[in-house]
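If you are new to this repository, start here. Below is one unmodified record pulled from the training split, so you can see the exact layout before writing a loader.
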Amino acid sequence: MKEKFNKKKYKDYNLNNTNTIEFTDKEYQYIKNEISTLENYFWNSNLFDNSEKIELEEVESYLKKRNEPYRLEFENISINDTSATVEMKNKNYIVYSFSKPIFFRKNKFCLFGYSVNSEKNFKPYKRIAFWRKKRGKWIEWLDLYNNID
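And here is the target side for that same chain:
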């Protein structure tokens, strides 16, 4: 995130609208400082029900091990059996990683990053975006980075 947050003004060129955010010197420095604290931030292992905490370097082997039974089961499904295919797809283990949100402007905006790893993807999907609170709900508002080709 540190490499991607490197300027004071961001624009998102969307077909429907153009979102822009510009930071004051104080806001920019605050966010830079908060990003630097993320390197030493670790979530509690019991943050979510039915979840496990996995070290980054163990993600690939974890997914391979956990998805092995489903891979064998998947080989026996006929290609036309859509309901079974969907059911199998929903059984696959996925690893989600996410940053601690950095809130600013009286908690109406935040900077948040996340990634999604599945065994099928060799490269995890990564996204960093500014989120905005609108009518009490957080919406992804302006993309800072995503690695979709």
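Two things worth knowing about this chain: The mean pLDDT is 84. The beta strands are 9-13, 18-22, 94-98, 102-104, 109-118, 125-134, 137-146.
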